[in-house]
Amino acid sequence: MRGIHDGGPKPQHVNGELMSAAAEQRIFISYRRSDCQSQANGLNDGLRHRLPEARVFMDIDSIPIGADFEEHIRGEIEQCHVALILIGDNWLDARPGSDLRRIDEANDFVRLEVESSLAAKHLRVIPVLVEGATMPTPDELPESIQRLARLNAFEMSDQRWSTDIERLTQQLQQLTGAATTLAAESAPTMSFADVDDAAIRYAMSTLPDRFKTKDLSEHPAVLATHTEVSELRNYHTIIGRYLMKHRAALGLDEPGKPVDKRGSVWTKTNSRSDYAPPPPRTPSPQTSTAPPPRTSYPEPPVPAKKGRKARTMILWCVLTMGLASWAAPLWAANRRPYDKAFRKRMQVLAAILGIAALAAFVLVGSGPEDATGTPTGAASDAGGTLLLLTIAAGVAVVLIFRKPQVALAGMESVLARRDSRERYRQLVEKDRPLARSMNVGRPDVSRDYDDGGLVDVNSAPVHTLSQHGGLDHAEAARIVELRGQLGRFVSMDELLAYVDLPESTATRLRDVAVFV
């Protein structure tokens, strides 16, 4: 038997993760003595030497008198947040003098340790293969621990023991870093209400057309009005979120992907490039500590788009001799703004007509001319025919699609939410830390924006997955349990490889799922 703790502060659970008061890492080593005793000893010594701040639990030689050994094992594992399951070449062997494998015995200590580790939602379970062993298949394991076969294993060889234990140590240190990050989440944070809009706008007017988030958040004018919050851990993140939320009003394009630690790359648009309000005043120490009054800046009016009428578009195609017939499909595309597939088809048709018109112009110009200067010959005739075809195509498109698409009741809101989901999915791909700090995909958290109903599979609790993801409670609980073992899911395909969902349920979840 293995795994007893030697006192110390009781660990706490925060958001489903295990933490001690000082983010101390606790590691449980499970092994079978008849299988890999020497490797377990070597791993224990190596980890204690390389991770002096961690507590490694191993070698329980006795259980207190009268104690329930199942409860005792589960209690010891409950205090850890990493379980290393050592698997050697004799891990599945039968007990001497018996045909029954030890792992099949309900009271086998190793089986109980694995069961308890897999059942603990906060625990990261890592199979460790030693002695050249291979990972057992699900069919070789009892049903209660078959999930162990699906976990990514870490291999350790006696020939490269020092190198392998160094790699394992590095991975365990990364887990410790994640726990420290969780501990920091209880620190004071900045909110949108703390952002001074006037300072942001003034600093932007002094920055080049392309700048990074920290170029703005560290600008003297911005720091001067954020003295009380500039030292908070999420200060730069909130500034970035503020730019994202108000980018249209601030005259900014979609942010570019970060290229270094200074945050997303922002580009000014021409519509507000001349904006330069006066700099904000820095409150003196003698004045009140109340924040300075904020200045509101009205949005510039957006000119209404004036669409051409059908008769105008027909004349346009005819009078330009077909050279501008490519404009007709683009005009038709704007008649159906809610049909993305139709808009793409019209854009392709516009490109085809544009190429055809260019080819016709070249053919007509390359043919010989008669005495009056009129192009003649086969090439000229082909070019003229092609121009007639482009005119006919342009006119036909106008006549067929002259009536604009009428939005049905509720259609606009549904399509708007769909577009919103796509935009925030793009944000997740471009800047995952920013999306995480904005709580994208967390409808259970109070937010000041609408992401279209996205659900973050990697952080949403069971009730949110069930309510917003179209899952029943058991399916949602299974997903939460598995992500505690795997760390996070990276795609819907990986999720479906671990969780068997009905096709209809998978389709509903795919529409709203995001993996932050």
Overview of this protein structure:
Pfam families: HHH_3, TIR_2. Residues 254-263 have a biased composition (Basic and acidic residues). Keywords: Membrane, Transmembrane, Transmembrane helix. The chain crosses the membrane at residues 313-334, 346-364, 384-401. It comes from Nocardioides cavernae. With 516 residues, the protein is an alpha/beta fold. It folds into four domains: 12-184, Rossmann fold; 192-272, Arc Repressor Mutant, subunit A, CATH 1.10.10; 310-400, no CATH class; 411-514, no CATH class. 45% of the residues lie in helices and 7% in strands. The chain contains 19 helices and eleven strands. The strands form four sheets. It has a five-stranded parallel beta sheet, sandwiched between helices. A hairpin with a 2-residue loop joins strand 1 (12-14) and strand 2. Helix 2 (69-78) packs across helix 3 and helix 10 runs antiparallel to helix 13 (378-400). It is elongated, with a radius of gyration of 33 Å.
